Amino acid sequence: MSKEGNQNRANLESEITSSVQKFLDKTKDKEINLISHFDTDGITSAAIMIKTLKKLDKKFTVTILKRIEEGFVQTLPKNKVNLFLDLGSGNLDDLGETGIQDVFIIDHHEVVQKVPKNVTIVNPELHNKQKISSSGLTYLFCKEINSSNKECAKLAVLGMVGDCLEKEICKLNHDILKDSEIKKRRGLLIYPSTRPLNRTLEFSSNPYIPGVTGNVKGVLELLREAGLNPTNKGYPSLIELNDEEMAKLVTSIMLRNPKANNKEIIGDIFLVKFYNKLEDARELSAKINACSKFGKSHVALQFCLEVSKAKENAEEIHIKYKQNLVSSLKYVSENEEDKIKGDGFVIINAKEEVNDTIIGTVMSILSNSLIYEEGTILIGMAYYKNKIKVSARNVGNEGRNVREILNRVINEIGGEVGGHKFAAGCMLKREKESKFINQLKKQLEIELVKI
Asked: The whole model's pTM is what?
């Protein structure tokens, strides 16, 4: 790590230390109103904080949100300490106008507004944009409160995996991995690595394998080509394969996707002890995410806290979610009439055919599928009541800033924007659908001319 990198890391750690002290001072005689995001990173952040607050014997309430809707900030209690996890960085102006004294934010999303005096924020965007999840930040925050909170490190890793940051192992993330005692193995990045290969391949969405994902016949053909045959116990799991078998499976997958390379489909498999069993961190992360996407954030939270009754519920929800996701991917891949294609961009207007809670996942999968050229902007649209949920991704995390592009369009027509440089989203009224598409195409074409 460079001298500048060390300095920025020190600045972030120093910010965490001072924020913890302030938080402990402010919560001595006040109840805490905890608000967290509903994705894996937000849920694991909330679980880490809940465990910590219980140890401190603090009174608190928990609210899990899909997004901060217009007017929500005005409903915050003024007699409590309001703590946002994986949320809030895009609402600084509103928070500054509430008159609430004590607001804390632990988040990693882009900061474009001035931080008001009543807000204490821990965000790597203010410290050289270090790659760390909100759950990672929450873990470091809670570890600073009490070193015994090391037991929560595995939850931080699940959040990191949920936000696809496992490949961005900087010093801070490395320390979290070390604390978590998670087992790491090199292998093919399909999951779960602990389940029979035929089932794993059938529901493999990241990576998405053309002709295999969602296709039982295609799965069996691929396994036959790779020389992997079932035994009396069925097909082996990924982590049971030897090096030769793994190499043959990789070759068979690459033949179905010539653009793929080993660097993109081979990586670290993280195995974590959960409910006293060794599990693939990516599957656990996906289960948490699935619960929230199905409107069952309370099950996701209980699952993270390893409440016994939540395990079966989470698994049932995850099966339904995978089926829904595979059918959504199939729909998007087979319906070309819903796609608006331009030079360097594809807009997929799925309307009511894809659930608004899944459109972002679909876009993420497609952006990692190697179907499209690196740098291509993929924008998905799905109906949500009288609104439209929009999710944008850059293939290969390269090219233009999609958050800025969406921001310019929404400034013209109205709505809400959030996210990152290469993974952003927005919400707009359904009546603005045509205007949004026209303005979006215009902005994408203008950006192309600039390049």
From this structure: 0.78
